[in-house]
Design goal:
7-stranded mixed β-sheet; Phosphatase_SCO2771; single chain; Rossmann fold; globular; alpha/beta; 42% helix; Phosphatase
Length: 276
């Protein structure tokens, strides 16, 4: 059993919490863009409240542990590991409830290079518990705005986890999919389920647009978010996202194995013994 103390030590050692690679400059830029309602950082959320930079700083200080001082404008951002551990407990409880009810679940990530293994481990455990892990809109093309303009991507699934790839990319280069903040993939996936008449997810698990896009449509959603992703925390504060875990979402992929083990243990779900 992975203890909270061991998890806390791992978070700090792997720089998942404590001083993280995400800079204060990056976070403040995201808060300014969010306050201006820039869709690149809204991630599919339509905020109900008035969120200026000051309000966002206060929220992120409360949910993540970043400094609430607007005069601090540089250096690494900081995530309080105690908040990460507590949020992982809430995250695990939502999985426990879904597993107990054998709810249909949808997993999706915009960070497949880092987080695919974490979500895939959860998806396998939920499937073993009797939940249907949904894989809608497999192969469907989605036109998404990127830094290079509008690009066509294809929805795909790896070990039960949705991601997007650029069609025509070499298999080796696109093995884990593309990084995206877009809510369009989850909208397309949910639309495909509605059109097919099949079961809709009672829980969406993921990050970025997968969480905010689902929550905005009224589907219960939980996920992971960095200090420069205020949309998920605003969604949680406004009641459209059920749980958000603050952590650095772009460290080496193996670092998330102990987190998956901790979550599954807390949720009473089977744990893969080969995880670290």
């Amino acid at each position: 059993m992975l203890s909270e103390g061991a998890l806390r030590a791992h978070l700090l050692a792997a720089r998942l919490a404590g001083p993280v690679a995400t800079t204060r400059e990056e976070s403040l830029r995201s808060y300014r863009l969010f306050a201006a309602r820039d869709p690149r950082v809204l991630l599919g959320l339509d905020p109900q409240g008035r969120w200026d930079v000051g309000a966002l700083l206060g929220l992120m200080a409360d949910r993540c542990g970043v400094s609430a001082d607007p005069a601090q404008v540089s250096g690494p951002d900081v995530i309080d590991p105690e908040r990460t551990v507590a949020a992982l407990g809430v995250f695990a409880e939502r999985l426990r409830e879904a597993a107990g009810a054998r709810s249909p679940v949808l997993f999706g990530t915009g960070h497949p290079h880092r987080l695919l293994g974490f979500y895939a481990g959860l998806a396998g455990a939920m499937s073993a518990a009797g939940c249907v892990v949904l894989t809608p809109a497999q192969g469907v093309h989605v036109d998404m705005t990127t830094r290079f303009g509008v690009r066509t991507h294809r929805i795909d699934y790896v070990r039960g986890v949705a991601l997007v790839r650029e069609p025509g990319a070499r298999a080796a280069a696109s093995a884990t999919g593309a990084h995206t903040h877009s809510p369009l993939p989850v909208r397309v996936a949910l639309g495909a389920l509605a059109e097919s008449g099949g079961p809709l997810p009672e829980l969406v698990v993921g990050d970025h647009g997968w969480v905010c896009g689902a929550g905005q449509l009224g589907v219960e959603a939980i996920g992971l978010a960095d200090t420069d992703d205020p949309a998920l925390f605003v969604g949680e504060a406004e009641g459209r996202v059920a749980a958000v875990v603050p952590l650095d979402d772009a460290v080496f992929s193996a670092a998330y194995g102990p987190l998956a083990r901790f979550v599954l243990q807390r949720a009473g779900l089977p744990v893969r013994q080969e995880w670290p």
